[in-house]
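Spend some time on the protein that follows and explain the fold to me:
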Amino acid sequence: MHELIEKISEVNDLILQGKSLEAFEMFYHDDVIIQENDNPECIGKCLNRKREEAFFESITEFRCAKPLKVTVGENITMVEWHYDYTHKDWGVKNYNQVAVQEWKDGKIIKERFYYGS
């Protein structure tokens, strides 16, 4: 579990430095599956990279991102984040989100985000 604490801490640190896409390249498995709430899963690193790039390109003002709580278990991590930004299509977003990551071979193989709509 110590290895996962180090890995999720590095992911979080990169996000805080504005390097989310670098964290994605370093820590996400080629076969990653990402899901937001009950929306359909997005399968594969290539499709998820495009989704991430589109999200960040749509941010018009970024005010805050901070991890509130981190939990580590056997091959699983969970991070509660607080976000505050303005998105060109969604407007002002100020909310908490829980990200649950399942790990395989030292990389995130599955991630699901839980947040209010």
User: Anything to note?
Assistant: The chain is about 30% helix and 50% strand.
